[in-house]
Amino acid sequence: MEALHSLLQQVMRMQWSDYLDILVVTFIIYRLLPLIRTPSTMRVARAVIVVVVIAAMTDVMHLYTLSFLINQFLSIGLLALVVLFQPELRRMLDHLGSVRLGALFGGVKPVAEMDMVISQTVAACDCMSREKVGALIVFTREASLDDYVKTGTTIDGRVSEQLIRNIFFPKASLHDGAMIIREGKIKAAGCVLPLSTSDRLAADLGTRHRAGVGMSENSDAVVVIVSEETGTISVAMGGMLKRHLAPKTLEKLLHNALCPEENQQENRNIGQILRQKLARPGKEDQDHEA
């Protein structure tokens, strides 16, 4: 009770600037966490949480020797964290540095005719899958991926099935690299992507699939891969690879991943229709009552 009373007194003494300070910090954290939520950052966060939980348990269970070791580790915890998780921290900072300021403060992402972009991409992937033409297509979301765009050839062209197929034509000069689509346009092709070092990937996956998974591990991008050997279509997101996708499944997956605001609007419209039907009896019920 004393702690609650002290907390209430502290709240009563707060001024408007204190509330504004809390709101601003909360908003920044709320907008920042989804942008840097990658498998690398999650591994760092889990390691920190495990160390903190072990430290708390040693104090409660009076494990003095282990507590001494944990406290010694925590005394140099920041340095140890940098040394142990240097690759993950570097990737996290690279990802955070590539995030556009407008995305951080909730700006509307300028995606032009995303439905058309998705339909053209799916049509191209369907054709390349049947012809067993390899392809690697990256859709940016919040992270702009400027560093990876610079490794390829700038195109800045409208997305079309013919252009995608021409770029990945086996004898074309840019077919070996990745295509990056941003803001509804093909920004560049022939781009070099980081390879995944995960041991969870199947041994039969080649460089193209490992590059797609590696890109999804280091950013929030959605990567579409068409296998040159089997013609199967795969999608990598968040370090996870979904294989053997049908064109309809690919279109639905891309739509859900790249058009979240439209999906939310559709859900709201469906919810409004259901509420209206529940709020008033249907025509058949009225006729029955009459």
How much strand? 5-15%
Approximate helicity band: 55-70%
Poorly predicted parts: 107-112, 263-270, 282-290
Alpha carbon gyration radius: 25 Å
- Counting DSSP E segments of at least 2 residues, the number of strands comes to 7
Explain this structure to me?
The chain is an alpha+beta fold and 290 residues long. 58% of the residues lie in helices and 12% in strands. It has a 7-stranded mixed β-sheet, sandwiched between helices. A hairpin with a 6-residue loop joins strand 5 (222-226) and strand 6 (233-237). The chain starts with a helix and ends with a helix.
Q: What's the gist of this structure?
A:
Helices cover 58% and strands 12% of the residues. By secondary structure, the chain is an alpha+beta fold. The protein is elongated.
SSE map:
Layout: H1 2-12, H2 16-35, H3 39-60, H4 64-75, H5 77-84, H6 86-97, H7 101-104, H8 114-131, E1 135-139, H9 146-149, E2 153-158, H10 161-167, E3 178-182, E4 185-191, H11 207-218, E5 222-226, E6 233-237, E7 240-242, H12 247-258, H13 260-279, H14 283-289
Parallel strand pairs: 1-3
Antiparallel strand pairs: 1-5, 2-4, 3-4, 5-6, 6-7
